[in-house]
């Protein structure tokens, strides 16, 4: 096996002896508790909580002047107003991730893009969340009305603004901007830009 082959996450599943819902309702997220054992050791059982989540898309939208479209949004759980990128749940059955990203960019930022590049696919907290983030780069931006889509709750107070990419990168590296998907998108884009791949 080459070193390159070792640098790969692989699907796996350990024996689950029982499961119970800790919380499940009409919302998109549920919490489940499983009784699990190591393969070949059914006598050694332990419990693990899992937050079931359909996944999300994140969009790094960069214009012709190398500015990034940013949001400022309140997050109750974390007690912060974060600088973020347009993002949203993958809650439409069967919708390809890039189409979800296109929809979220329109709904949250009133933008369309002609160029879409998949940057990353990440598990934000693999020890407890099933969520996967599909992170996209969007270029060739133009205005597109959100139509009759209405922003609710935290999104109704969301602000949009533009910042030069290099200033955003500095803010990430200085720890001024810490929201995970944004940090990942910015660093991935910088690496690819430096390597001449975007």
UniProtKB/TrEMBL annotation:
<protein>
    <submittedName>
        <fullName>NUDIX domain-containing protein</fullName>
    </submittedName>
</protein>
<feature type="domain" description="Nudix hydrolase">
    <location>
        <begin position="51"/>
        <end position="190"/>
    </location>
</feature>
<dbReference type="InterPro" id="IPR015797">
    <property type="entry name" value="NUDIX_hydrolase-like_dom_sf"/>
</dbReference>
<dbReference type="Pfam" id="PF00293">
    <property type="entry name" value="NUDIX"/>
</dbReference>
<keyword id="KW-0378">Hydrolase</keyword>
<dbReference type="InterPro" id="IPR000086">
    <property type="entry name" value="NUDIX_hydrolase_dom"/>
</dbReference>
């Amino acid at each position: 096996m080459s070193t390159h082959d070792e640098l790969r996450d692989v699907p796996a599943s350990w024996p689950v002896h029982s499961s119970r819902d800790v919380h499940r309702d009409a919302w998109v997220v549920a919490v489940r508790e499983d009784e699990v054992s190591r393969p070949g050791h059914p006598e050694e059982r332990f419990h693990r909580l899992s937050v079931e989540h359909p996944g999300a898309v994140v969009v790094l939208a960069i214009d012709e002047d190398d500015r990034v479209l940013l949001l400022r949004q309140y997050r109750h759980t974390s007690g912060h107003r974060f600088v973020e990128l347009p993002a949203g749940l993958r809650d439409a059955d069967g919708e390809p991730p890039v189409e979800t990203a296109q929809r979220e960019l329109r709904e949250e930022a009133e933008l369309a893009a002609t160029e879409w590049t998949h940057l990353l696919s990440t598990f934000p907290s693999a020890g407890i969340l099933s969520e996967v983030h599909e992170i996209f780069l969007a270029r060739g931006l133009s205005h597109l009305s959100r139509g009759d889509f209405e922003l609710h709750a935290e999104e109704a107070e969301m602000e949009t603004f533009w910042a030069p990419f290099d200033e955003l990168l500095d803010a990430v590296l200085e720890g001024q901007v810490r929201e995970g998907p944004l940090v990942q998108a910015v660093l991935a884009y910088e690496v690819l830009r430096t390597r001449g791949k975007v």
